[in-house]
Amino acid sequence: MSTHVKEEEDPEANQTDSKPTCVRKRKFLERGLKRIEQSGVAPEVRRYNTRRIAATNTRKHKVFEVARRIAATNVEKRWVVKEPEFVEPKNPYFTAFISRSNRYNVNIPRSVVKKYNIKIHPDMKLRDQSGKLWPVSVVFRGDGRIAITTGWINFRKEMNLGLQDKCVFEFVLRGRISKEVRVQIFRKKTRS
């Protein structure tokens, strides 16, 4: 049979400060005191230095936090960049999400081409939202698939398209022939 004897603790040893402090600050002080006690410095010097350092760090932290908040609100006020709104295309269009499968080419849905009876020119141009033209090649595969190939990689890299970004491809028609495709880009929304 064993008997546990509870040791009495010195009430002054547990008090780190006579002023009420937040729990986080108190824990920080206690950790600092333990580290200093292990180092072998005199107890009075230890407590004074730990409190002084903790108070300085807390003040610095608050100043930096306030400065960060002010800077963030100023940046938000000055540099609010509105996400482009989706403009419903007047011409036939299709959408594609950037994935690993279309890193090197983009397939044009046959259903859109057949429905609107579009004749696609083998040497097309992609027009980005700023109006810049990008030359691309269109390949007509034996199984009926149509793909934008050569030039797509340059467009994707220059536009910094990432996974799950959405592209809306709108055919610009001259009669039934399309030599140009307008591209609207919508970035993947990240969770804050």
TrEMBL record:
Chief location bin: nucleus
GO MF annotations, alphabetized: DNA binding
Locations listed in the record: Nucleus
Residue stretches in coiled coil: none
InterPro entries: B3_DNA-bd, DNA-bd_pseudobarrel_sf, REM16-like
Region described as Disordered: 1-20
Domain TF-B3: 91-189
Gene3D superfamilies the UniProt entry points to: DNA-binding pseudobarrel domain (2.40.330.10)
Name of one Pfam family that matches: B3
GO terms under cellular component: nucleus
Domain of life: Eukaryota
Sorted UniProt keywords: DNA-binding, Nucleus, Transcription, Transcription regulation
Name listed for the protein in its UniProt record: TF-B3 domain-containing protein
Species: Liquidambar formosana (Formosan gum)
